[in-house]
C-alpha cells in the first residue's frame, strides 16, 4: 500500500462491523469545514446518499448550541470516505493495533451520511462564537465506500428510527417551561399519579390520565411568558390553579382514587384529553387576573363534560363525535368553557365564536 503524501489526519480508534473496518475520530469543530467540503445534498437524488439540506432546521440547532454553550451535547457525525485512506496504529498488540491515526488522502471525498444539519449548524455557530473552534465532535468514518455502498449505509442507519417521545424530552429538559411543569408534577402526588412523564400517546390500558407534553403545554398557556427569571415565582401560582381544577373535576378525582379507570374516563369525558386541558390553561390565564378566580372555577362542576354532549363540544374539541386535538380546537373549547363559567370573551374570541356559530347554522 502506498503512503499518503498529502491529506488530513485524525486520532482514531479502529473497529470491525460485518467484517469491514471503520474508525471513530475526534474532529475539532474548526476543521469540519475542511473535512466536508462538498454539499452532496445539492446533487440529484440518484447521485447522492443523503437527504436534501433543510435550511429551516439550521437556526434552531445553532441556537441550541449557543444558548446551551456550557452543556450542549451532540452525537457523532457519520461519514463515508470515497477514495484512499489508511490507518496507522501506534503498536502491534491487541489494544495498540486498534488505536492510532486515520489519514485521508487529499484527493478523497468525505461525504456526510448522517449529521449534515448538525454540521451546518456548528459552522454557523462558529461564526457567532469563535471560542467553539477547539471543541470537538466525534466522527464515525466508513472507508472506501462507493455511491451504492453509501446509499445502503444511509438506508441502514435510518431503517429503525425511534424518535424520543415529546413527553420524555420535556421530562429530561432543563428549559424554564420544562422545569416549571416538572416541579409541579414532582411536588404533587395527584399529578405524579395522573401524568405520564415518558409517553406521548397513552395506550388503552394506560393508568395515566394525561401526558407530560399536554400538561406542559397547558401550563405554559397560563402565563404570557415563562423564562429563567420568573419560572420559580410561577410555580406556586400554577400549583394552586391545577389543584383547583382537580378539586372541581370529578373524573380526575375518580381516576386518582381508583374509582374509575383512565381508559373509561377517556372514552366518556372530554376533560381528560389534552385539547381540553390546553383549553383549561387558556381559561386559567384569564381567571388568574381575577381576585375570586377560585370561586368562579367551582362552576367547572356544573359543566357537562360527556363526549355525548355534542351541543356544547361539536366543532370545538369534537369533530363528528371524535376528539380532535390542535391549537384552534383548544381555543374554541376554551371559549365555550369561558361562556359556561360566565366569563367575558375578548373581541377575537367573540369573532371566533360568531364564525363557529355561523358555520353551525346558528345552533
Describe the overall structure:
The chain is α+β, with helices and mostly antiparallel strands. It folds into 2 domains: 7-157, no CATH class; 166-359, no CATH class. The protein is 43% helix and 16% strand. It contains 16 helices and 11 strands. The chain has helices at residues 32-35, 57-67, 116-128, 147-157, 166-171, 176-187, 189-194, 212-221, 231-247, 250-256, 262-268, 274-287, 293-297, 310-313, 327-341, 347-359; strands spanning 7-17, 20-28, 77-82, 85-89, 99-105, 109-114, 136-142, 195-196, 210-211, 318-319, 322-323. Strands 4-5-1-2-7-3-6 form a 7-stranded mixed sheet. A two-stranded parallel sheet has the order 8-9. A two-stranded antiparallel sheet has the order 10-11. Strand 10 and strand 11 form a beta hairpin. The N and C termini lie far apart (83 Å). The mean pLDDT is 91.
Structural class: alpha+beta
Query: What's the pLDDT, averaged over the residues?
Result: 91
How many β strands by DSSP?
A: 11
Helix content: 40-55%
Number of domains: 2
Low-pLDDT residue spans: none
Intertermini distance: 83 Å
Order of the strands making up the biggest sheet: 4-5-1-2-7-3-6
Rounded to the nearest angstrom, the radius of gyration is 27 Å
Order of SSEs, N→C?
A: EEHHEEEEHEHHHHEEHHHHHHHEEHH
Tell me the β content: 15-25%
Amino acid at each position: 500500500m502506498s503512503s499518503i503524501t498529502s491529506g488530513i489526519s485524525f486520532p482514531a480508534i479502529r473497529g470491525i462491523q460485518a467484517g469491514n473496518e471503520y474508525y471513530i475520530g475526534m474532529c475539532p469543530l474548526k476543521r469540519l469545514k475542511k473535512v466536508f467540503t462538498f454539499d452532496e445534498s445539492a446533487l440529484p437524488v440518484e447521485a447522492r446518499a443523503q437527504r436534501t439540506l433543510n435550511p429551516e432546521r439550521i437556526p434552531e440547532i445553532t441556537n441550541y448550541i449557543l444558548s446551551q454553550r456550557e452543556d450542549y451535547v451532540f452525537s457523532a457525525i457519520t461519514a463515508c470516505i470515497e477514495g484512499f485512506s489508511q490507518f496507522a496504529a501506534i503498536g502491534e498488540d491487541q489494544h495498540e493495533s486498534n488505536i492510532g491515526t486515520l489519514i485521508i488522502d487529499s484527493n478523497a471525498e468525505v461525504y456526510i451520511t448522517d449529521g449534515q444539519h448538525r454540521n451546518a449548524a456548528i459552522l454557523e455557530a462558529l461564526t457567532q462564537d469563535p471560542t467553539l473552534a477547539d471543541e470537538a465532535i466525534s466522527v464515525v468514518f466508513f472507508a472506501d465506500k462507493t455511491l451504492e455502498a453509501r446509499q445502503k449505509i444511509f438506508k441502514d442507519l435510518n431503517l429503525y428510527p425511534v424518535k424520543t417521545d415529546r413527553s420524555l424530552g420535556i421530562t429530561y429538559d432543563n428549559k424554564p417551561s420544562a422545569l416549571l411543569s416538572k416541579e409541579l408534577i414532582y411536588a404533587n402526588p395527584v399529578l405524579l399519579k395522573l401524568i405520564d412523564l415518558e409517553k406521548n400517546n397513552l395506550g388503552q390500558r394506560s393508568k395515566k390520565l394525561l401526558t407530560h407534553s399536554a400538561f406542559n403545554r397547558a401550563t405554559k398557556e397560563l402565563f404570557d411568558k415563562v423564562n429563567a427569571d420568573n419560572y420559580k415565582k410561577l410555580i406556586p401560582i400554577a400549583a394552586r390553579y391545577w389543584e383547583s381544577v382537580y378539586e372541581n373535576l370529578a373524573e380526575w378525582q375518580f381516576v386518582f382514587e381508583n374509582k374509575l379507570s383512565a381508559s373509561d374516563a377517556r372514552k366518556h369525558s372530554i376533560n381528560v384529553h389534552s385539547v381540553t386541558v390546553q383549553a383549561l390553561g387558556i381559561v386559567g390565564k384569564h381567571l388568574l387576573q381575577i381576585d375570586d378566580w377560585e370561586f368562579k372555577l367551582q362552576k367547572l362542576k356544573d359543566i357537562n363534560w360527556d363526549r355525548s354532549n355534542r351541543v356544547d363540544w361539536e366543532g370545538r374539541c369534537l369533530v363528528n363525535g371524535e376528539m380532535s386535538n390542535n391549537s384552534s380546537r383548544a381555543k374554541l373549547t376554551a371559549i365555550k368553557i369561558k361562556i359556561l363559567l360566565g366569563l367575558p370573551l375578548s373581541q377575537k374570541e367573540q369573532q371566533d365564536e360568531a364564525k363557529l356559530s355561523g358555520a353551525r347554522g346558528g345552533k
